[in-house]
Structures are given as C-alpha cells and as structure tokens.
Amino acid sequence: MKELFKRLIKDFMERDFNVLKRDYDIPLHTKKIISLIGVRRSGKTYILFGLINKLRKKGLKENIIYINFEDDRLIGISYKNLDELIEAYFELFPEKRDEKLYIFLDEIQEVQYWEKFVRRIYDTLNSQIYITGSSSKLLSKEIASSLRGRTISYDIFPLSFREFLFFNKIKPDLYSTKSISFIKKAFNEYLIKGGFPEVVLEKNEDIQIRTLRDYVDLIVYRDIIERYKIKNLSLLKLLIKYIFSNPATLISFNKLYNDFRSMGYKLSKDTLFEYFEYLNDAYVAFTTSVFKSSVKEEMRNPKKIFIVDNGFNYIFNTSFSPDFSKLYENLVFLYLRRNFREIYYLKHKKEVDFYLPEERLLINVSYDISDRKTFDREISSLKEGMKYFGLKESILITSEREEIIKTENLIIHIKPLWKWLMQ
C-alpha cells in the first residue's frame, strides 16, 4: 500500500489542471480542519484543485498530499492503511518533516473510521487538512462526534446563477441591453437544466440528460443503497421520482404513506421517514418546516420539499411544460440555503413561502403576477406576515416585474428572479 501511495502522490504532483473559480471563500491557512460537504458532482474536488493551484503559486507544490479515495486502486482500504500514506510521503520528501503540509483527502467517507486518522494527524502533524464527502453524515454525526471543535464545514452546491454566468463567459452588465438579453437567455437555461458544472459545460442536450440520469443512479446506488443496505429499491426509486417531480411542494408523510400503500407498496411510516432522511443525508432533498412557537406544532404541519438542482426535475418531469412557479421557488430556496441554515415557511390565514429568522425577512415567490387576484394574494400574505412579526419590508420575487410597493407604512420590494439571484 505504501508504494501505491507514493505513486499516487507523485502522479498528482505532476498533474496540471485548469479550474474555473467558484464563489466560495475557503481559507488556505487556519487552525481548523476544513470539510467540504455536498451532493456528488457539485464541484467539491475542483474547489480543492483551486486551493491547490493557489498553494503551487506560492511555491508549495511538494508540500501537498492529495488522495481521492474513490480511486479504484484504493478499494478495500482501511483506516489502518492510512498511516502508510504519511510514511510514504516522508520517504519521498524527508526534508519536509519540519515544514507545514497541506493534506487533501477527497471523498474520505469511503474509508471506515477515517475520523480517527484525521484527528491523529491534526493533533500530531504541522498540517492544514481538507476533507470532502458526499454525505451530510460527515457533518451531522461523524464530524460532530469525532472532530468537535477542530473543524469548519462548508456546504457545496451545484453552481449558483452568478457562477453559471461565469462558466458561460457572460459578464453581467445591467446597464447594457445586449448584456441583459444574454443574462436572461442564460437564466432560462439555468432554471430548467440546473447548475451541475459538468452539465453546464456540456452543450449537447442529449448528453446533458444522460449525465443527469447517471448522477441520479450514482447518488442512489453509491450514497444510499450501498451505505444503508436498502432492500426496498422500488420504493426508494418511487420516492425519488415523486420528490424530483414535485419540488417546492408541501408534503404530508401520512398522505404519502397512504398513497404508496394504495399503489400496493408494503412499507411502514418509519421506512418512509428513513428513506427521506437518507436523501437528505446525500444532499439530494431538503425540507422547510412551518414557523411555529414550538417543535411539536412544527412537526404537526406538512413540510415543504426542495431538491438540490432543477436539472433533476428536468429529467423526471413528464408534463408538457415545466411548472415555472415551482422551479422559481426551488431556485430561491437554493439561493437561501447557500447562505442560511434556518429557513421556514409561514402559515396563518395566508401563506408566505420563506421566512428567515436570522434576517427577519419574508419572501414570496410567484412566477406570474399579471393577474390581479394573484398579485393581491401575494401582497396580502406578505402584509399579514409583516404585521405579525412587526417588520417594515419584505420581498416578492417574480419573473419580470420590478418596483417598490408602499402600503400601510409597509414596503414590498418586487424583484425579477434573474436579477435577485445576481446579488
């Protein structure tokens, strides 16, 4: 194993790669272990490569250890073999023993008990450690229990709209009519096909669809079925199809349970909850709860489901035209989730799509507010929410309209989604 590690270390040092910049400010120097967590193919590895390029420019090329634990040559590796990784490096570069090392461990969750190794080298080596994983188990359980106080975690998502524009070489200029036309065209593609980097860079639509389908298979089989030893595969696939076909939808687990039972599936409510948690762990699906004063009240109400990328809806949606309202709301959620952990919806007499307690901000999303009844409904629900929380301002996100509404000493900012996403 030591000889294999030597070859992997040297091969990587000889490798060059071009990396497109992402909007993540990951530190190069900190006393904490840096962990990048997110769905597969969201770009975690290339964010590491970007950091590695910065280190190389500082003349630290030989101070870098990078290992991808999904390399087929490392299948079956145990945490006991990981000691040989450090030994292999120092046999190659004995003069580096007194220098700081930069250790990048990609998809580290493939190695059982990896956290023992990471904790030990953190405590004993002069090193900066970066780890990535495709399961929130790294964040919620393994890191929390084993690396408590030692780590800073970053959630990595597919491309934001700003990143999407950059990947497509579009420099936004809101004072240029020509630039705005390019931005809007790009937004329409982003809205439907999402932001997985490989899909964005591929311009052949058939290959885009095949790539997204491969991603679903990879996530289902690698991150869920293998990890959790799923037996009822058909039920899991049905649940995935339902979620991807219905983003930004209120979901009652009781109703979903009864619906699946009526289709002939044998399942318990616990199984349904567990499968949904597995999708959440793999960063595929997320939920928001209604904002209430008690946890019990929150749990009694339906949750609203969202998906990690609109592209998954693109390959599962069987209707003749996309549901733009749902796709808009899902993009707003993803934008918010990149920046905030606490996201709720509000429900009193009327419903507000998003409430952010940290920001004390209410947001409604409506694709088309040209109909007066729709417009009045959206404004009325925001007004009710603002009065309830004692807020003076809120936001209504739509497709094109942009203005400021002042009513009853309250201010509602109406903004087109494509522009709001560029903030």
Structural write-up:
47% of the residues lie in helices and 18% in strands. It is α/β, with parallel strands linked by helices and 423 residues long. The chain is built from 17 helices and 14 strands. It has helices at residues 2-13, 44-57, 82-92, 114-124, 137-146, 161-167, 177-193, 197-201, 205-228, 233-245, 253-262, 269-281, 295-300, 310-316, 324-339, 372-389, 417-420; strands at 33-38, 64-68, 101-106, 127-133, 151-156, 249-251, 285-290, 303-307, 344-347, 351-356, 361-365, 393-398, 403-407, 410-416.
Strand content: 15-25%
The count of helical stretches stands at 17
Q: How would you sum up the major sheet?
A: 9 strands, mixed
Distance between the termini: 48 Å
Backbone shape: globular
- Please provide the count of β strands: 14
| Strand adjacency order, main sheet | 6-8-7-9-10-11-12-14-13
Give the helix proportion (percent range).
40-55%
Secondary-structure content class: alpha/beta
Q: Kindly state the mean pLDDT as a whole number?
A: 92
Query: Whole-number radius of gyration?
Result: 23 Å
Q: What ranges have pLDDT less than 50 throughout 5 or more consecutive residues?
A: none
Give the domain tally: 3
At a glance:
This protein has 423 residues and is an alpha/beta fold. Helices cover 47% and strands 18% of the residues. The N and C termini lie far apart (48 Å).
Write the layout of secondary structure elements.
Layout: H1 2-13, E1 33-38, H2 44-57, E2 64-68, H3 82-92, E3 101-106, H4 114-124, E4 127-133, H5 137-146, E5 151-156, H6 161-167, H7 177-193, H8 197-201, H9 205-228, H10 233-245, E6 249-251, H11 253-262, H12 269-281, E7 285-290, H13 295-300, E8 303-307, H14 310-316, H15 324-339, E9 344-347, E10 351-356, E11 361-365, H16 372-389, E12 393-398, E13 403-407, E14 410-416, H17 417-420
Parallel strand pairs: 1-4, 1-5, 2-3, 3-4, 7-9, 11-12, 12-14
Antiparallel strand pairs: 6-8, 7-8, 9-10, 10-11, 13-14
